[in-house]
Design goal:
Blueprint lengths: L1 H28 L5 H5 L2 E11 L2 E8 L5 E7 H7 L6 E4 L1 E2 L2 E6 L7 E8 L2 E2 L3 E4 L8 E6 L6 H13 L7 E3 L9 H10 L1 H4 L4 E3 L9 H6 L5 E2 L6 E6 L2 E5 L4 H21 L5 E5 L15 H13 L4 E4 L5 E6 L2 E6 L16 E5 L2 E10 L2 E11 L18 E9 L6
Parallel strand pairs: 10-11, 11-12, 15-16, 16-17, 17-19
Antiparallel strand pairs: 1-2, 2-6, 3-4, 3-7, 5-6, 7-8, 7-9, 10-21, 13-14, 14-15, 18-19, 18-20, 21-22, 22-23
Bound molecules: fe (ii) ion (FE2).
Length: about 400
């Protein structure tokens, strides 16, 4: 009797163990249902760029093959109809990359979009199309996000949460430490807080090494140089934005002169009252022995002055510094996440210098002036490499420097 009961007990136990094993196997092997499954083969992004103020580009990299499908719709219709009933666009695939341009958007309108996955549209993302002729708008600028993608993610999160709601984000280069796929993957992970809803407009730093992977990743407004987007320009509202490649040694004298002539032509034809230029290596910095990169200064500063440039952004030096030369405000914003450095002395034109801060720049153009604020995200401890990239930081979100620049046409 006891023997029989023991056999039954052992059979039940075996059955339970078998069910448990099957259940665990099912958990591992069967993918979860719904949008999460569809997102599984999106490895980078989605992230937005612009071809012009009226054309958004949705970009992503997947592990699948074939044309990438983008589903998009005015958000109000999506909510009313509970799905993507129409407006699907396909883009050609290149090595897993998808870049799908969306034009003909209604201005200042909320859109919802999703990129394709294994089972249809994945998770929803939202963006607001730009206005036709905005009275005022905001944009952000930052730089040097290499090495510490965890810290970059903190800066990107603060930018995403900033109520200024920027029309786009400028990046002054050194997005990644080197143009390896793993570094790009970390970069696109770090910018995910804003990248699905706010377009990114970058320039080349020295660390991108003018590698094809940069050009593969970014669809940008038309310009010149490699792939027609090594340098480029863009207009929105009252402002003209000019993006340059300052890697003079890398691009060679011939192309550098070609770019400088293109710059002159851009400024000659510029009718906007406010002009912003962005490139990686600063012309002016306390880090330089005489406060200036003499070669770049000789090449571009006079052209900026004669061409009416108002505001210049650079990175490369991993600190914050604002200087004024011949009425042009120069800002170095090297605090996007990379290990920070110390500015030990100050050159004559330096107005403010702040070391060891994660930060970004918030600019608002309105009422005939630009209000430029440097936003401190967090202080970092001084020391080589700031110890570890995943050290906790105390997020501040406070304005650490502010300046107002009236449009030249508004000045007496
Ligand atoms: Fe750099």
């Amino acid at each position: 009797m006891f023997g029989n009961n023991k056999d039954k007990y052992l059979s039940c136990k075996r059955l339970l163990v078998s069910f448990s094993v099957l259940f665990l196997l099912a958990l591992v092997l069967i993918p979860p249902p719904g949008p999460r499954a569809a997102e599984e083969d999106v490895t980078w992004g989605p992230y937005l760029t612009l071809r012009s103020a009226s054309e958004f580009v949705v970009n992503w990299k997947g592990t699948g093959s074939g044309a990438g499908e983008l589903y998009y719709l005015r958000a109000i219709r999506y909510w009313q109809e509970e799905g993507f009933s129409e407006n699907t666009l396909s883009g050609p695939e290149s090595d897993g990359f998808h870049h799908v341009g969306v034009s003909g958007l209604d201005p200042a309108t909320r859109y919802v979009y999703a990129v394709d996955g294994k089972t249809g549209p994945g998770r929803e993302n939202y963006f607001t199309s730009l206005r036709d002729d905005p009275d005022g708008f905001s944009f952000f600028a930052y730089s040097d996000t290499q090495n510490c993608y965890q810290r970059h993610r903190i800066v990107a999160s603060e930018m995403a949460l900033d109520p200024a709601d920027p029309a786009f984000v400028l990046h002054a280069g050194d997005l990644v430490e080197s143009p390896l796929s793993e570094n790009w993957k970390n970069f696109f992970w770090a910018i995910r807080p804003y990248s699905g809803s706010t377009p990114l407009l970058p320039v080349l730093g020295n660390h991108e090494k003018n590698h094809d992977s940069y050009y593969d990743a970014f669809v940008l407004p038309e310009g010149g140089g490699d792939y027609g987007k090594e340098w480029y320009s863009f207009t929105y509202g009252d402002a003209r934005f000019i993006f340059l490649d300052s890697n003079a040694g890398q691009i060679g004298l011939g192309d550098f002169l070609k770019q400088t002539n293109w710059l002159k032509d851009q400024l000659d034809r510029n009718e906007k009252p406010f002009t912003v230029v962005i490139f990686h290596h600063p012309i002016f910095s306390s880090k330089y022995p005489e406060g200036a990169d003499v070669g770049l200064k000789d090449s571009w500063h006079r052209i900026f002055k004669e061409g009416g440039v108002d505001l210049v952004f650079s990175g490369h030096i991993h600190s914050y510094e604002r200087s004024v030369e011949d009425g042009i405000t120069y800002i170095v914003t090297g605090g996007g996440g990379a290990p920070t450095g110390t500015l030990e002395s100050r050159f004559d034109s330096s107005r403010v210098a702040i070391s060891h801060t994660l930060h970004y720049i918030r600019v608002n153009l309105d009422g005939g002036q630009a209000t430029v604020q440097a936003v401190k995200v967090a202080d970092l401890e001084e020391g080589y490499w700031n110890r570890y990239c995943d050290d906790e930081v105390v997020v501040k979100g406070e304005v650490m420097d502010e300046v107002t620049i009236p449009y030249k046409s508004e000045q007496g």
